[in-house]
């Protein structure tokens, strides 16, 4: 039996696939891909796990712990947690139907964390396109092609009602829903997330193929079915680039694989 067929189900890698991609992406704006997100609270560390953009969102920590324990048993003090995350993210994309790529190794684990930096630099789902572009520029990413391509990681994953409910009832204090939302999609979201309801209820970022790594995230934006405001903002202004990515899915993979997200 193959490694993917035997070990990955045991480790829970398939179930946590979207979590690894998200977890790795969440590290980019903070201190780089150094696994600082894995550090727990201590006398000297204020964990990034409890930052606004991470709490009740980043997951898969137990699976990383299992993989690290197995590697330490086989080859102590050799493989960093940062490399584990990068490899797990690539393998998760493969398990979700996407392509594979070579993951450069040699990352070193951080011994510090910065919840303040996480709160400051992780973009919230309420940003305008201009603000999104600024946040990418601030971490030395291209605020056009990188922004659109890396947003494609929302091909899988979940979001809480609290991150998009403002679009459903009183968008920008208008007293009405976000006019960019497809009417059928809006009705479904209002049923899921009623006013005054539980803000921790979650739904899929990609309503079409939520557990598959494909280009349907972009197709959803074309149909005004982007869940987060920051998702739909992309199509409202840079629709031509999204259409290009739709027609050439490999462009998305190239953008993702060549970025600091996968590099030591």
Bin the helical content: 40-55%
Distance between the termini: 31 Å
**pLDDT under 50 segments (min length 5)?**
1-18, 23-30, 257-264
Which H/E pattern describes the elements?
A: HHHHHHHEHHEHHH
Assign the CATH class of the largest domain: Mainly Alpha
Number of DSSP-assigned strands: 2
Helix/strand class: mainly alpha
Task: Give the radius of gyration.
Answer: 18 Å
Protein described:
The structure is a single chain. The protein is mainly α and 264 residues long. Helices cover 46% and strands 2% of the residues. It has helices at 3-11, 17-27, 61-74, 81-95, 115-121, 129-137, 145-151, 166-169, 183-192, 216-222, 229-247, 249-258, and strands at residues 158-160, 202-204. One of its GO terms (biological process) is hydrogen peroxide catabolic process.
Write the SSE topology.
Elements (H helix, E strand, L loop, with lengths): L2 H9 L5 H11 L33 H14 L6 H15 L19 H7 L7 H9 L7 H7 L6 E3 L5 H4 L13 H10 L9 E3 L11 H7 L6 H19 L1 H10 L6
Antiparallel strand pairs: 1-2
Helix pairs in contact: 2-4, 7-11, 7-12, 10-11, 11-12
């Amino acid at each position: 039996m193959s490694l993917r067929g035997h070990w990955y189900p045991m480790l829970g890698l398939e179930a946590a696939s979207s979590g690894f991609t998200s977890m790795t992406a969440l590290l980019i704006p903070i201190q780089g891909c150094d696994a600082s997100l894995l550090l727990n609270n201590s006398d000297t560390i204020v964990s990034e796990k409890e930052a606004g953009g991470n709490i009740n969102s980043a997951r898969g920590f137990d699976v990383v712990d299992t993989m690290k324990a197995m590697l330490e048993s086989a080859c102590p003090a050799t493989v960093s947690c940062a490399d584990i995350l990068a490899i797990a993210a690539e393998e998760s994309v493969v398990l979700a139907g996407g392509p594979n790529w070579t993951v450069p190794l040699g990352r070193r684990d951080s011994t510090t964390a910065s919840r303040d930096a996480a709160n400051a630099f992780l973009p919230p789902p309420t940003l305008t396109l201009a603000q999104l572009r600024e946040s990418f520029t601030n971490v030395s990413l291209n605020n056009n092609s990188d922004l659109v391509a890396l947003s494609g990681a929302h091909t899988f994953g979940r979001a809480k009602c609290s991150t998009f409910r403002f679009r459903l009832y009183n968008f920008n204090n208008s007293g009405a829903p976000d006019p960019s939302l497809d009417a059928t999609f809006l009705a479904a979201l209002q049923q899921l997330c009623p006013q005054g309801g539980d803000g921790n209820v979650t739904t899929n970022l990609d309503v079409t193929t939520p557990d598959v790594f494909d280009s349907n995230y972009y197709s959803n934006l074309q149909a005004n079915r982007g869940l987060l405001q920051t998702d739909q903002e992309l199509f409202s202004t840079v629709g031509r680039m999204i259409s290009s990515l739709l027609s050439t899915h490999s462009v998305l993979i190239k953008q993702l694989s060549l970025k600091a997200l996968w590099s030591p």
